[in-house]
Design a protein that fits this description.
The chain is α/β, with parallel strands linked by helices. The chain folds into 2 domains: 120 residues, Rossmann fold, CATH 3.40.50.12500; 103 residues, 3-Layer(aba) Sandwich (Rossmann fold). The chain contains 11 helices and 8 strands. Strands 2-1-3-4 form a 4-stranded parallel sheet, with helices on both faces. Helix 10 links the parallel strand 7 and strand 8. The longest helix is centred in the middle third of the chain and has 13 residues. The chain is elongated.
Length: 261
């Protein structure tokens, strides 16, 4: 039997180390779906830094992606927000689901999140997409979604209700967000070229599951016009709320623009 050496005396240091006010200067919360492969990765790439922390909570979600299933997430929003740095303020928080946001409604999402995080600026992907399009001063747009026709209809109504003239709307008919995440960025570039209406001033690509943020430079080169995507716009919106206006054109033309409310 091995004989243990006597444990050392544990000494409590009386001198206290200096404390920063926060570990990182800014805090961005992200509420992601349990099935989401993409949002957290995109936010780590586009938002997180030595200055800005990204803190994630996931909430239950079950496919298929239908308006009924999307609406079922609403009761989980307050609990999800409460799990992100409890009792500490955030500089912004994003609910990372575009289709659910238009089904539930921006105001309802904001109320649910602020019930747990009073006063925090709330970002939804369609809200960020609208702000991104406004930053370019455009009104005539094309929209591309991976959803079914049924799930795409609320998206069309959302942008039309905010004054956008939808020149064309195309959807891909997918019902599972995990499969949406497998669509290759290269194929999204080709889809952008195919669906862009000649009279449209910009393209909005919906869905936080899509790896569309990676494809933005290629899509913009293919169509010769600005491209705004769900995760690209949400990340841009959150970072601008953190006071970071640094142009980062590698993420698309939008990332050279200030935030337009």
């Amino acid at each position: 039997m091995k004989v243990m050496k006597p444990l050392p005396e544990i000494r409590l240091e009386t001198a206290r180390p200096a404390l920063d006010e926060r570990p990182l200067q800014k805090r961005v919360g992200l509420i992601a779906l349990a099935t989401d492969h993409t949002s957290e990765v995109d936010f780590r790439r586009m938002v997180a830094s030595e200055r800005v922390g990204v803190y994630v909570a996931r909430i239950p979600y079950a496919n298929p992606t239908t308006p009924e299933n999307l609406r079922k997430m609403q009761p989980s929003l307050s609990a999800g927000a409460a799990l992100i740095l409890p009792d500490e303020p955030l500089d912004a928080i994003c609910y990372s689901c575009t289709s659910a946001s238009v089904v539930i409604g921006d105001a309802e999402i904001e109320a649910a999140i602020q019930a747990a995080k009073p006063g925090v600026p709330v970002v939804t992907p369609p809200m960020a997409g609208m702000r991104g399009l406004n930053a370019f001063g455009v009104k005539r747009i094309s929209i591309l979604t991976p959803y079914t026709v049924e799930t795409s209809r609320p998206m069309a109504a959302y942008f039309a209700s905010h004054g956008f003239d939808i020149q064309s709307f195309s959807c891909l008919g997918f019902e599972d967000d995990r499969e949406m995440a497998r669509i290759t960025p290269v194929s999204l570039v080709e889809m952008a070229r195919k669906v862009m209406h000649p009279e449209a001033e910009a393209l909005f690509v919906s869905c936080t599951a899509l790896r569309a943020a990676l494809a933005v430079p290629g899509m913009e080169e293919a169509i010769g016009r600005p491209v705004v995507t769900s995760n690209q716009a949400s990340a841009w919106n959150c970072l601008r709320l953190c006071g970071d206006d640094t142009p980062r054109p590698e993420f698309g033309r939008l990332w050279t623009k200030p935030l337009a409310q």
